[in-house]
Amino acid sequence: MSIDLRLEMKKEYLYVQMTGVFTIEEAKGSFCKILEAASDNDAPKALLNCLQLEGAPSMIERFTYGAFVAKELRLYSIRFGRPSIKLACVAREPLLDKERFGEIVATNRGANVKMFDDEKDALNWLRSLF
Questions:
Q1: What domain range includes position 25?
Q2: The domain that contains 75 carries what CATH number?
Q3: Burial class (CB in 10 A: 0-12, 13-18, 19+), 47
Q4: What is the mean pLDDT of each run of 10 residues along the chain (130 residues)?
């Protein structure tokens, strides 16, 4: 099963509804589509709603995906000549790791990303100045 994306440009950010089953390859491909949509819409921020996305990534998959996200965000800045986007992701366990390992991997590599289990908290962070 693949990951399906429903993209909607809100006033301040790109909203992405993700459904399906997480696999590392599907997630990488979906993330590239999200970055393309962000560029097409001049979106400086994105909210990924993964509450309907199933899966339980392994520790190595979390590491691999976090490193991939950071790399793609750096390339985004270079490719499109603009600052990297601020990215909030909402998910539940087991897709969401309570230790936030993937988030740590990505942020240690310079990505401005944060994982949440509540959409309101994600929006508050996304709208903050930092």
A1: 3-127
A2: 3.30.750.24
A3: buried
A4: 93 97 97 96 96 97 98 93 93 96 97 97 91
